[in-house]
Amino acid sequence: MKLLLTGFDPFGQETLNPSYEAIKLLPDRMGSAHIEKVLLPVSFENSGAVLKDAINACQPDAVICVGQAGGYAGLAIERIAINLRDASIPDNDGNQPQDQPVVSCGPAAYFSTLPVKDIVSALKANHIPAFISNSAGTYVCNNVMYTLLHEIHSSHLSIPGGFIHVPYTTAQASQKLPVPPSMDLEQIAKGLKTAVETTVASLKAEN
């Protein structure tokens, strides 16, 4: 079994992005599951292509994309991606699309096909703050989530996929005023490990 995990480059004024830094802390194998880790650019135009190439190369059994949501106090398991690019700040290419679709003539939205409620329950059981989010925003994170689910749908892939937002690390938060909510990087990694294990268990139960 293979799981593809993706994180992002730093963006805005940040020098690190906890999404990929936490993924790097995860083992390359969890039980019977091999973990593929891919770094995505914070780019509306290029992130989807890198993601699709990774899916084609890896042929995963599930895909979990991860991004940073500064200001969150826990892991947000995203439920919905919408067909909209509407950026409040430029991406790392300097692009700032407004009122544009992710996929022209694509459906208005896709729902995550990860076991979102089971993941939240497992995280809370491990004393990791977590919640279901019904908005992945309109920035590159939502762009990637929508692209992922559209690719799964349009290519008729029988794999679950979805997105998780993670908070600032404590190191990031310590440099900001007022100090925002944060989480230790190791705790974020523990949460992502739990999400992977829950997804693997769900796949095994289905088979």
Automatic annotation (TrEMBL):
Gene3D superfamilies: Peptidase C15, pyroglutamyl peptidase I-like. InterPro entries: Peptidase_C15, Peptidase_C15-like, Peptidase_C15-like_sf, PGP-I_bact-type, PGPEP1_Cys_AS. Its main location: cytoplasm. One of its GO terms (biological process) is proteolysis. Keywords: Cytoplasm, Hydrolase, Protease, Thiol protease. GO terms for cellular component: cytosol. It comes from the Bacteria. It is found in: Cytoplasm. It holds the Pfam family Peptidase_C15. CDD domains: Peptidase_C15 (cd00501). Its EC number is 3.4.19.3. The active site is at residues 78, 141, 165. It catalyses: Release of an N-terminal pyroglutamyl group from a polypeptide, the second amino acid generally not being Pro. One of its GO terms (molecular function) is pyroglutamyl-peptidase activity. Belongs to the peptidase C15 family. Homotetramer. Removes 5-oxoproline from various penultimate amino acid residues except L-proline. This is Pyrrolidone-carboxylate peptidase. The gene is pcp.
